[in-house]
Every structure is written in structure tokens, then in C-alpha cells.
Write a structure and sequence with these properties.
Blueprint (H helix, E strand, L loop, with lengths): L3 E5 L3 E6 L4 E7 L20 E2 L10 E4 L2 E4 L12 E5 L3 E7 L2 H6 L4 E10 L2 E10 L5 E3 L1 E3 L2 E3 L7 E17 L2 E16 L10 E4 L5 E6 L4 E6 L5 E5 L6 E8 L18 E3 L4 E10 L1
Antiparallel strand pairs: 1-2, 2-3, 4-12, 5-6, 7-8, 8-9, 9-10, 10-22, 11-21, 12-20, 13-20, 14-15, 14-17, 16-19, 17-18, 18-22, 19-20
Length: 285
């Protein structure tokens, strides 16, 4: 039986699955859900939380103190049940802590709390990671919300609210090559299927703080933003009825990664008893 939490304020409503603390619905009151409805044909997620890694590890494994551990792409949090810490009509805090099973893949003590809070026409999402152990905690975290598009991708564009030039990091088999491609963005990026033939568009240290998905009539659908993201992924599959805007604090391995988690590119480090909070928001139009 599906266990979910429903939130509501005077403008919007949302639903969160306790499995993975995954946001599965967000909409204006009595209007259609803007997140896509999961379809195994294309993708078996809706808006998974990425923890304790973002992206793929080389050979789906890593080393700590000369011992090797396996871990699937984006980590395990998305598949585990979170517990409710606190809940009101417009806010919920959920928590995940280590278990014997998580230690088989990630030998660390941790607490990951996820807070969803409705504010006006936005939902604010906070990830708080605490090192509850006695050694350094290496980790990454991120979001992966997919939004419904009911027309071919060429009918949509992204509004970055500023012009910029940035590197797109090229991906081969889920890992970053050393190659980048300059992208010149004149405020907007028109979407085409060819842009995603070789996986996601990834901007590390993005020079913008928000992006809006719009249709070609300039009607805004949804805005996602953050003041402290370290990377952003933009992704879809050819012909799929969704588009993902992904805020990240970390990223996948390079093709030449050493496999040592403590040397992984994009990793965060927490001293014992220390914590870190990162956040983003989704605004409904």
C-alpha cells in the first residue's frame, strides 16, 4: 500500500511518497499535476532524491580505506522509506538514517532529513545532512524532478533570465569525459531532441539562479531555482513525455576517476557532528 503525505495551502497542493521521500505531485488547487506520471516505458521515477552520490560511479563502485563497495547510480535513498519527523498542513520533515543494509554499500553513520514547505505558489525543498559518526562523511545530494510535457520537445524552451556562455560537460556511458562544449545562451534555449541524444546537458557551477520551462507561446509552466546549487542537469529521453530540471550538489565520476570516494570530484565532506543544508524551490505558474 502506497504511503503518502499531502500538503496544501491557499494556492497549491503537493503529495510526497514516503518511499524515497519523493515528490510525486504538485499543482495549483484543483488543477492538473505538473509532475509527470511515472511510466515504466520511459522512466521508473518521478522526482527521486539523489544520495549519497549524484550520478554514476565508475564501474558502479568505489573504495574507502582499500575496501571496495558497490553502489548504483544516484545512490540508495530514492528506494528507502523515510520516517515522518514533523507534519503540518503545509510542511513536512522526513528523515532517513543508516541501517545494516545501507552500511553494506556505504559504511558511514548519517542522517538525511528532507523538508517540503509550501510558500505561496512555490514548494521549498531542503536537504539537511548530518554526520552522526566518528569519521569524515563524504557525500553528495541532489534533486531530480521530472515535469510533464504533452507535446514534442520542440514545442518548449528554457528561460534563464540572463545571457551567458558556459561549458556543457560531455557524458559517455554515464561518466564525464574531459571534453566540454561551449554553449552560448541568449536568455533562452530552444529545446530539441538532438540536444539530448548523448545524455543530459550539465552545467557545473551554473551562472544563473533559476530557470523556467515555457512553451513556445512563452507561457510559463514551472520555475526551478536555487541560490547555492553546484550543478544543474537538464534531461529527457527522445520521445518521452517529461523534462527534468535537476539541482545538484555533486556529480558523476569522470572516466578516469581513481575510485577513491575521498578523492571523488564534486564530493562534500562533513566532520563528525557537523551538518550541511542545501535547498531549492519549484514555483508553479
Amino acid at each position: 500500500m502506497k504511503k503518502t503525505i499531502k500538503l496544501i495551502n491557499e494556492y497549491i497542493e503537493a503529495e510526497i511518497n514516503l518511499i524515497g521521500a519523493e515528490l510525486i505531485s504538485i499543482a495549483k488547487i484543483q488543477q492538473n499535476n505538473l509532475l509527470w506520471v511515472k511510466n515504466e516505458q520511459y522512466w521508473n521515477r518521478v522526482a527521486p532524491i539523489l544520495f549519497p552520490i549524484v550520478g554514476k560511479l565508475k564501474d558502479d563502485s568505489y573504495r574507502i580505506n582499500d575496501k571496495r563497495y558497490s553502489m548504483k547510480q544516484h545512490g540508495f535513498a530514492r528506494d528507502l522509506e523515510f520516517k515522518v519527523v514533523e507534519q503540518t498542513t503545509n510542511k513536512v520533515e522526513l528523515i532517513l538514517v543508516e541501517t545494516k543494509e545501507t552500511r553494506k554499500h556505504y559504511p558511514f553513520s548519517f542522517s538525511l532529513s528532507v523538508e517540503y514547505k509550501l510558500v505561496g505558489q512555490s514548494i521549498q525543498i531542503f536537504y539537511k545532512t548530518i554526520n552522526t559518526g566518528k569519521e569524515m562523511l563524504p557525500y553528495s545530494v541532489g534533486g531530480h524532478p521530472g515535469f510533464e510535457i504533452n507535446l514534442p520537445i520542440e514545442n518548449y524552451k528554457l528561460n534563464f533570465y540572463k545571457s551567458f556562455i558556459s561549458d556543457r560537460w560531455k557524458i559517455i556511458d554515464g561518466l564525464y569525459s574531459e571534453e566540454t562544449e561551449k554553449m552560448i545562451i541568449d536568455g533562452y534555449l530552444s529545446l530539441t531532441k538532438d540536444l539530448f541524444m548523448h545524455d543530459a546537458i550539465v552545467f557545473k557551477r551554473p551562472p544563473f539562479s533559476k530557470v523556467t520551462l515555457e512553451n513556445n507561446q512563452s507561457e510559463k509552466i514551472v520555475t526551478l531555482g536555487s541560490e547555492n546549487w553546484e550543478a544543474i542537469g537538464l534531461w529527457t529521453k527522445p520521445g518521452a513525455p517529461f523534462f527534468c530540471i535537476e539541482p545538484w550538489w555533486g556529480w558523476a565520476d569522470n572516466q578516469n576517476a581513481s575510485g577513491d570516494l575521498l578523492q571523488k570530484s564534486g564530493i562534500h565532506y562533513l566532520e563528525p557532528s557537523k551538518s550541511e543544508i542545501v535547498s531549492y524551490y519549484i514555483e508553479v505558474h
